[in-house]
């Protein structure tokens, strides 16, 4: 089964597999221990254009379908979920511009990526996680500019991005989320800074920081879609992003199954390889079933996106199921390794640590179930 992709994507898939084998798989082990950001690894990835895979052809990108890109992202996630998260999060930072930006904004942002830049999306705040409408960051009109003040947290690529799409309130008196807008803020804008890198349990090859805005002056030309449109743009952005997190989760689950098969073929108990026992084979079968189901859910949601038809329910289902699958598969892989699975010299404890965040970010899986229920039941 797996993804059905173009010949161009198949060539890229082989190149990415080779790149990850040479530059990511073994190196990730040491970076996971030290927490150091692997700058050289990402420079090499940018030279391959991996940070620009989602850019449309008319803006200098490869012009691949979303399912093509999914196969490539999953291959990166098999190598390391933190690496794949960094690459995917750059696309996340670009989505608000591609969704609501004008031609100038799209061309500017895509040019940054094509020339080796990274992007980031700034929505979450210390008091506004699952409830983004509770955000306190503000943008005050001042002549032909807006002045932004506030703090974002848990921002993937927060310390390395070349541009940010930042949500802020342009009308604090508007009810609910109607006063939220989104701004394109470029790196080195005075007053824009980031906090220290978070010391995370998993995906430690990705950069996560606060993003701080202190009297950040942004020209009105950097407003995306108009005042008050920010919440709708942010929700459309997250709808798309959820499917991509399903893709990365699936790659992580695939890696866990690969490691479990390899280990139990070699590990012997009672005079034969552990994988000869039906109990182990059933565990592998359950992994394979859920991984393939995740993959097809991802592909379906992404195909709907490419066709321009509603996909919110399908993206939520894909993200929720795939990330739950990643957690289940990595936990089972640790179990299949026995005591060795709990030791850092073996690969699966890292995979288990990496998996947990996928049930939390881009909307917790509790939120995904709410989205799925609302889109299934309807209003009554």
TrEMBL record:
Residues 120-216 form the Acyl-CoA oxidase/dehydrogenase middle domain. Keywords: FAD, Flavoprotein, Oxidoreductase. InterPro entries: Acyl-CoA_DH_CS, Acyl-CoA_Oxase/DH_mid-dom, Acyl-CoA_Oxase/DH_mid-dom_sf, AcylCo_DH-like_C, AcylCo_DH/oxidase_C, AcylCoA_DH/ox_N, AcylCoA_DH/ox_N_sf, AcylCoA_DH/oxidase_NM_dom_sf. Residues 6-116 form the Acyl-CoA dehydrogenase/oxidase N-terminal domain. Its cofactor is FAD. One of its GO terms (molecular function) is acyl-CoA dehydrogenase activity. Pfam families: Acyl-CoA_dh_1, Acyl-CoA_dh_M, Acyl-CoA_dh_N. Residues 228-374 form the Acyl-CoA dehydrogenase/oxidase C-terminal domain. The keyword Manganese does not apply. Coiled coil: none annotated. Gene3D superfamilies: Acyl-CoA dehydrogenase/oxidase, N-terminal domain (1.10.540.10), Butyryl-CoA Dehydrogenase, subunit A, domain 2 (2.40.110.10), Butyryl-CoA Dehydrogenase, subunit A, domain 3 (1.20.140.10). PROSITE patterns: ACYL_COA_DH_1, ACYL_COA_DH_2. Belongs to the acyl-CoA dehydrogenase family. This is Acyl-CoA dehydrogenase, C-terminal domain protein. It comes from Pseudoramibacter alactolyticus ATCC 23263.
């Amino acid at each position: 089964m797996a993804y059905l992709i173009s010949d161009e994507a198949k060539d890229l898939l082989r190149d990415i597999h080779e790149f990850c084998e040479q530059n990511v798989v073994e190196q990730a082990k040491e970076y996971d221990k030290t927490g150091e950001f692997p700058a050289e690894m990402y420079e090499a990835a940018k030279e391959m254009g991996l940070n620009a895979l989602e850019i449309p052809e008319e803006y200098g990108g490869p012009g691949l379908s979303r399912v093509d890109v999914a196969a490539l992202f999953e291959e990166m996630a098999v190598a390391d979920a933190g690496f794949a998260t960094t690459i995917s999060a750059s696309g996340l930072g670009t989505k608000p511009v591609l969704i609501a930006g004008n031609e100038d904004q799209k061309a500017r942002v895509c040019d940054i990526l094509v020339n080796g830049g990274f992007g980031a999306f700034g929505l979450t705040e210390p008091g506004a996680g699952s409830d983004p409408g509770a955000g306190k960051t503000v943008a005050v009109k001042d002549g032909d500019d807006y002045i932004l003040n506030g703090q974002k947290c848990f921002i993937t690529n927060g310390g390395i991005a070349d541009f940010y799409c930042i949500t802020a309130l342009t009308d604090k008196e508007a009810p609910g989320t109607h006063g939220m807008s989104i701004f394109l803020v470029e790196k080195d804008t005075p007053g824009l800074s980031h906090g220290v890198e978070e010391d995370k349990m998993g995906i430690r090859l990705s950069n996560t920081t606060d993003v701080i805005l202190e009297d950040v002056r942004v020209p009105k030309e950097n407003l995306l879609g108009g005042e008050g449109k920010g919440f709708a743009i942010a929700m459309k952005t997250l709808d798309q992003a959820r499917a991509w997190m399903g893709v990365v989760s699936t790659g992580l689950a695939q890696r866990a199954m690969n490691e479990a098969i390899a280990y139990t073929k070699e590990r012997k108990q009672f005079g034969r390889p552990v994988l000869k026992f039906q109990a182990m084979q059933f565990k592998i079968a359950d992994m394979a079933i859920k991984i393939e189901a995740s993959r097809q859910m991802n592909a379906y949601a992404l195909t709907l996106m490419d066709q321009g038809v509603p996909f919110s329910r399908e993206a939520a289902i894909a993200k929720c199921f795939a990330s739950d699958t990643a957690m289940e598969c990595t936990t089972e892989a640790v179990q299949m390794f026995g005591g060795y699975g709990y030791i850092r010299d073996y690969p699966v404890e890292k995979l288990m640590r990496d998996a947990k965040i996928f049930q939390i970010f881009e909307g917790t899986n509790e939120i995904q179930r709410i989205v799925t229920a609302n889109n299934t039941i309807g209003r009554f």
